[in-house]
Design a protein that fits this description.
Layout lengths: L1 E2 L6 E2 L17 E2 L3 E13 L2 H5 L4 H21 L3 E6 L2 E6 L8 H23 L5 E13 L11 E2 L1 H12 L4 E5 H7 L3 E9 L8 E9 L17 H17 L3 E6 L6 H14 L3 E6 L10 H10 L8 H15 L2 H15 L10 H18 L2 E6 L6 H13 L5 E7 L2 H5 L10 E5 L5 H14 L9 H8 L3 H14 L8 H12 L3 H13 L2 E3 H7 L6 H10 L3 E3 L10 E4 L2 H9 L3 H18 L5 H12 L3 H17 L3 H14 L5 H19 L4 H7 L1
Parallel strand pairs: 7-9, 12-15, 12-16, 13-14, 14-15
Antiparallel strand pairs: 1-2, 1-3, 4-6, 4-7, 5-6, 7-8, 9-11, 10-11, 17-19, 18-19
Helix pairs in contact: 2-3, 6-7, 9-10, 10-11, 14-15, 14-16, 15-16, 17-21, 18-20, 18-21, 19-22, 22-23, 23-24, 24-25, 25-26, 26-27
């Protein structure tokens, strides 16, 4: 079997294109791949149905369970989850595998809220009295990406599953209970109430829990901090200049702001909206949604509704009346009727109407937009356009190409994935600008980190702003999440918040299989890596140069001009978080095997001098070969001592000592003595034996 890299669908070995999404399978991964992933598990269980089923005929049980199963499965899958198994009247779903989306805990909880409401609606429509308990838990698991849940094969294993099952038993009837990590990842988008800790079988401590009540934000939206925008003066000046030219010269223009998740596109769009409003212009915003509620023209439909004062709560008749009134006000009667009819179809207000061809539909939308801009200079902002349907992308490009002599600015905010779906985006348009949004520079990143640390009242951690900024790589969202973690724990955490892991993992999952696989292999080598060990780890070196070039074009790695190993091309990860998340995907056994390959390469390619010797030791330690690791740590420590780097020697002796078995007393004593001598020289303590006893 082959697993599609785009959607995770199983395909037969002879298939060239995915049976589900039609993407080419030349980069498909073998079906047996296992990875460590952060996933969100959802359990949905009927309350008291087993006892009730004893009183029912089997056909009656089937008549109840079938629509219930279909309802729950449909809602879970509509939010991007996978139903892993049915256990009687209990259903287990997984979010974050086989594909991460970047917001899987939130997706799982939104699915849970909709399932709760859907079961209530099913009760009303079918005269039933079903009651459910739901639990959602987030954590690390071993995921078998080639598993086939439909055939009963388990896809996810780990404590996160067991804890979710325990939480589900403690949930109130028709309630949704979540674990601590799910709460931490979603508290800005979901309304919670505290719940008593759950005493769970097999857990040494009670499990902290919360009850999910309702969504706090619309799907796809993220609560923004109230901190002033930092470090985007140049980008705002560019947007201001384009707007002023559009408004003064009546020259329509398309600007695409491109940047990875969390880099600040939405915040930049809000600041730009303020500039437009202060200049007397109109700002109209629409968002493409990542799941479920999304429609073909979702973002544009939102903009039309905003212009017509249509609310989602309006009845169809009310919404259609508002649309007709707005269009009639803007256009002559002869034009208003067909435009209104076509917009009703586009907005889903007329389920029976049809349009002869798409050009006619697009012409009507163009007439409407032109009429809006004649009244007042207008900027249409399309947020998250990378999630937009192909027809929406066609519409935006057509408008940008055909609008003339009007003060209209089209602003697209998108991740780089937009260019994967539409490589020629903006090409050939009469007025088009691309505005890449890079991470904040070091100074701005530190300033933002200091502000965020202060805002979370993290006493005594302001000095950590530089560390937070460096780890986050200048990404404002990552800075915010890391600052919140520091503020809550009052200590530096080695592990990344799962909100960050999810975003980075989603970017990796969006890569073609060959590029993703190479990144994972490179992560074993370190933040800096070389082609040589990659060739040794790869099943085939064919196309390796092309894959490296593709990753460099995606700004994930960089080719460095100077190499520390003669004859070996040196590369580096552009962001340490990409390296860390890629590395964490590897199961322990595969990590050990790859670390051994890297250690062998360094032994053959380097003179084992200085830090190279210590690096080889660490790779052997990670490979599980402690004997070879000890040899290299001791050799590196001796070299450090000879160079009077006594503090470094102490650290290396300590690393070696931790690997020597307790029963090998003679060797442990010998290393302790050498450690004591190095410590004596470092601290000028006359009695080295005192230090030795302290060890």
């Amino acid at each position: 079997m082959l697993v599609c890299a785009a959607c995770g669908q199983d395909n037969p070995e002879i298939a060239r294109f995915c049976l589900a999404c039609a993407n080419p399978l030349n980069g498909a991964a073998p079906a047996s791949r296992d990875e460590r992933r952060v996933v969100s598990v959802i359990f949905v269980d009927l309350v008291g149905f087993t006892a009730r089923a004893e009183q029912l005929d089997p056909e009656e049980v089937h008549a109840i369970l079938t629509p219930y199963h279909e309802c729950v499965r449909g809602e879970i899958e509509s939010f991007g989850g996978v139903v892993e198994k049915f256990i009687g009247d209990a259903i287990m779903g997984v979010f974050g595998a086989p594909i991460a989306h970047g917001d899987d805990p939130e997706r799982a909880l939104r699915a849970a809220l909709v399932v709760r409401d859907s079961v209530e609606q099913m009760n009303a429509e079918r005269d039933l009295d079903l009651a459910i308990r739901i639990a959602v838990n987030t954590g690390q698991a071993l995921v078998s990406l080639g598993a086939r849940p439909a055939l009963g094969e388990a896809m996810v294993a780990g404590d996160v599953v067991n804890t979710a099952a325990r939480l589900q038993h403690a949930a109130p009837v028709n309630g949704i209970i979540v674990g601590e990590e799910t709460y931490a990842c979603t508290r800005d988008s979901i309304i919670f109430e505290p719940a008593p800790p759950v005493v769970a079988r097999g857990k040494s401590e009670p499990v902290r829990a919360w009850l999910a009540v309702a969504a706090a934000t619309n799907a796809g939206e993220r609560a923004l901090s109230h901190t002033d925008i930092v470090g985007r003066t140049r980008e705002l000046d560019i947007l201001r200049g384009v707007w002023e030219r559009v408004a003064a010269d009546r020259t329509p223009h398309l600007v695409t702001v491109l940047g990875p998740a969390g880099v600040g596109k939405t915040r930049l769009g809000i600041e730009f909206a303020r500039i437009v409003t202060e200049a007397g212009g109109r700002i109209v915003r629409g968002r493409s949604l990542p799941y479920r509620e999304s429609s073909a023209y979702g973002a544009f439909a939102m903009q039309v509704k905003q212009l017509c004062d249509i609310y989602e709560s309006d009845a169809i008749e009310v919404a259609a009346g508002k649309l007709r009134q707005t269009v009639t006000t803007l256009l002559p009667d002869a034009d208003a009727r067909p435009v209104t009819g076509h917009l009703e179809i586009l907005l889903g207000l007329d389920e029976e109407g049809t349009v002869g061809d798409r050009e006619t539909l697009f012409f009507s939308t163009r007439c409407f937009i032109e009429a809006v801009a004649r009244d007042r200079p207008t900027a249409f902002v399309f947020e998250d356009l990378h999630w937009g349907d192909r027809t929406l992308l066609d519409l935006v490009e057509l408008l940008a190409a055909r609008l003339r002599d009007l003060p209209i600015l089209l602003v697209a905010l998108a991740r780089p994935e937009l260019l994967d779906a539409r490589p020629g985006w903006g090409g050939g348009l009469p007025a088009y600008s691309a505005l890449p949004l890079a991470p904040l520079n070091d100074g701005d990143a530190r300033e933002l980190a200091a502000r965020r640390l202060a805002s979370v009242a993290a006493a005594g951690v302001a000095a950590r702003a530089a560390d937070v900024a460096e780890i986050a790589g200048g990404n404002p969202l990552f800075i915010e999440q890391l600052a919140a973690t520091v503020g809550e724990t009052s200590e530096r955490e080695d592990s990344l918040p799962n909100t960050i892991r999810g975003i980075v993992a989603a970017r990796l999952d969006a890569l073609p299989a060959a590029e993703r696989s190479l990144l994972v292999d490179a992560s074993v080598i370190g933040r800096v890596f070389w082609r040589g060990p990659l060739e040794r780890m790869a099943d085939s070196t064919e196309g390796l140069s092309d894959v490296l070039g593709a990753l460099e074009r995606r700004d994930l790695i960089r080719r460095e001009p100077v190499s520390m190993i003669e004859g070996e091309q040196q590369f580096g990860f552009n962001h340490v978080l990409i390296r860390d998340v890629a590395y964490d995907l590897l199961p322990r056994a595969k990590r050990e095997q790859r670390h051994a390959v890297v250690a062998d390469f360094f032994e053959s390619a380097t003179a084992e001098i200085g830090e190279a010797t210590a690096a080889i030791g660490r790779h052997w330690r990670s490979a599980g070969n402690f004997e070879r690791a000890i040899v290299h740590f001791l050799r590196a420590a001796e070299q450090a001592e000879r160079g009077w780097a006594k503090d470094h020697a102490v650290l290396l002796y300590r690393e070696a000592l931790t690997l020597v078995p307790e029963e090998d007393a003679e060797r442990r004593t010998a290393i302790r003595r050498r450690l004591a001598v190095a410590s004596q020289a470092l601290f000028h303590v006359p009695d080295a034996r005192l230090l030795e006893r302290r060890e």
